[in-house]
Design brief:
- It is a single chain.
- The longest helix has 42 residues.
- The termini are far apart.
- This protein has 560 residues and is an alpha/beta fold.
- It has a 7-stranded parallel sheet with strand order 3-4-2-5-6-9-10, with helices on both faces. The protein has a 3-stranded mixed sheet with strand order 1-13-16, with no helix packed on it. A two-stranded antiparallel ribbon has the order 7-8.
- The chain has 15 helices and 16 strands.
- It folds into 2 domains: 364 residues, 3-Layer(aba) Sandwich (Rossmann fold); 140 residues, no CATH class.
Length: 560
């Protein structure tokens, strides 16, 4: 498969009570890839494996004047995007730019949200360490060169985490160095390949299909990309193959060069134990505290790489303008997005995650979306306590499962509500979301999504999702990052119409109202292994907005 050639370039986020309806595999028909908003469709009406949002909007006769705040803990956001204008939270208690904390919430001039990764110069940190680097830095002095039998019994769990971090570091460093070698190679051969193809395509503009046909005529061997790279092959067949790989990954020369420069920073900064991004922020990383960072949540000027795309995508899924007849359509125009920046390139700090949760809860958010994950958590007790604080205030936290193709029952994923040591949940207001496709049958679950009978709660569409974007206005991407906001939007919609429900009731409704598919699917990372879809998550279901709203109506009515 050519897309794996220098694929290091790709880092890939109807049942109702007793009347549960389970679809058998034989009943499913092919979905329609051509439908831009397939994920809003309804299987029973459209034969498309969506979340039935469109059906609910068409049949809903209720109106509400309520507003609800969804906090999105993510990167920077494009606040001027056509689909997000007027959709962002405004702190009316704060007077803009007077350099005072008018509402005395601990944050100066936080009119539009807060950037916990804001630096001392008013911009933001672009690169942070991965969490395993922080683990190594924290424990290296105590454990480097030590055998397990020599470790104090009370510190064995930290020693094992240190060894796991060390292995992860070595694996990631090798991976990224190999990736960089591929980019260096592609930087050299891309212009040669492009020039060589002018003989056959003087006007360029060739397709992958055309290059495939030419490749079959001109290839001199069946080497893999790695063999050709290592042998420095420059024959015409090899050059055609290099260009095919670039086209499949939507790469041109400029993008290859830019990716190489970015990867240099990943290796030199994110994977460097001597680099500490907190020096740019100026906080005390050993203490939870308010006020560090800055109020710049939409900086499109000061950095080489603009980190505005991911939050823009996620927020657009939740609250994209439904009335402008263009772009994307969110769950409701009554949803307001509170942007909170905690995400550089690298892993999020547990301190920033915890403080962002406190900020969101204290400033009125009802739902918190966290479309990120990491394999380690150095200060998870901070995050655990923040999650319990959110639960106490009736706030739901929604997290993406991650894109490693892992079983996260056995391979830890953070943030989480699950204590891997005690093997129990720590709070009742947390939902972890895996991704599904619009592909029928065994490919319902994409190869990239994490899964887990205990630690993934529900699935939602996260494949070929059409979204708001930056700098291009719109894009189509895949990942569990885009499945999580489907659940966040659903929770917000439930509370807009049924505000008397508790967070535990909303979570239960989302679980129980999902669509069950009685089919076997390919297990991510399972090399062809299959399992019943219901065994890949706790609920065994896919999000269904229509059913959730119907069930919420009944639960709410019984409480009155």
């Amino acid at each position: 498969m050519r897309i794996l050639a220098f694929g290091f370039l790709l880092i890939v986020v109807m049942s109702c009570g007793s009347s549960e309806k389970t679809y058998k595999q034989t009943a499913l028909s092919s979905s329609l890839d051509s439908i831009k908003y397939w994920y809003h469709k309804d299987y029973s009406l459209n034969k498309v494996l969506g979340i039935s949002l469109e059906r609910w909007n068409k049949e809903n006769k209720l109106t509400t004047k309520n507003k609800i705040i969804v906090a999105v803990l993510d990167m920077q956001i494009d606040k001027n995007h056509d689909d997000l204008k007027g959709r962002l939270w405004i702190n009316k208690k704060e007077i803009p730019n007077n350099k005072k904390d008018d509402d005395q919430n601990g944050y100066v001039d936080d009119v539009e949200g807060w950037g916990f990764t804001g630096d001392k110069n008013g911009s933001y940190v672009q690169f942070s360490n991965h969490e395993f680097i922080r683990v190594l830095r924290a424990y290296q002095k105590d454990f480097e060169g030590i055998k397990e039998e020599d470790v104090d019994i009370n510190k064995v769990q930290y020693f094992k985490e240190y060894l796991r971090a060390k292995k992860t570091y070595n694996d990631k460093l090798d991976y990224n160095r190999n990736w960089r070698e591929s980019l260096i190679f592609m930087e050299k051969v891309y212009p040669i390949a492009k020039d060589s193809l002018k003989k056959y395509f003087p006007k360029e503009g060739y397709s992958i299909k055309q290059l495939d046909s030419l490749y079959l005529l001109k290839k001199v061997n069946d080497k893999s990309f790695w063999q050709r790279r290592n042998d420095n092959d420059r024959d015409l067949g090899a050059l055609i193959e290099y260009m095919i790989s670039a086209l499949e990954l939507n790469q041109n020369y400029e993008k290859i060069v830019d990716q190489k420069i970015k990867l240099d920073s990943v290796i030199d900064l994110s994977l460097n134990i001597k680099y500490n991004d907190r020096k740019e922020i100026g906080d005390d990383e050993t203490q939870l505290e308010k006020g560090y960072g800055n109020n710049n949540i939409s900086d499109s000027f000061s950095k080489r790489w603009k980190l505005l795309y991911h939050n823009t995508r996620v927020s657009g899924i939740i609250a994209g303008n439904r009335d402008n007849e263009t772009g994307v359509y969110g769950f409701s125009d009554n949803i307001v997005i509170m942007p909170i920046n905690i995400s550089p390139m690298g892993d999020k700090h547990d301190k920033d995650i915890a403080m962002a949760i406190y900020y969101a809860v204290d400033n009125g958010a009802k739902v918190i979306n966290m479309s990120f994950s990491k394999e380690f958590s150095l200060k998870r007790e901070w995050v655990d306590e923040a999650l319990r604080y959110a639960e106490k205030h009736n706030v739901l936290v929604v997290s993406s499962a991650g894109n490693n193709g892992f079983d996260i029952d056995t391979m830890p994923k953070y943030p989480t509500d699950y204590d891997y040591s005690l093997k129990k949940e720590l709070c009742g207001n947390f939902i972890t979301v895996g991704a599904t496709t619009n592909l029928v049958g065994e490919k319902l679950v994409p190869a990239f999504t994490n899964y887990g009978k205990e630690n993934v709660d529900i699935f939602a569409p996260g494949y070929k999702i059409y979204m708001a974007n930056y700098p291009e206005a719109y894009t189509t991407e895949s990942g569990t990052s885009y499945a999580a906001p489907m659940v966040s939007g659903t929770a917000a919609l439930i509370w807009l119409y049924y505000p008397n429900l508790s967070v535990q009731e909303v979570k239960k409704i989302i679980f129980e109202s999902g669509t069950s598919y009685d089919i076997e699917v390919l297990v991510p990372g399972g090399e062809g292994k299959k399992a019943p879809f219901k065994d890949l998550s706790k609920s065994g279901k896919v999000l269904n907005v229509y059913n959730a709203m119907e069930m919420a109506k009944e639960v709410s009515r019984k409480k009155k």
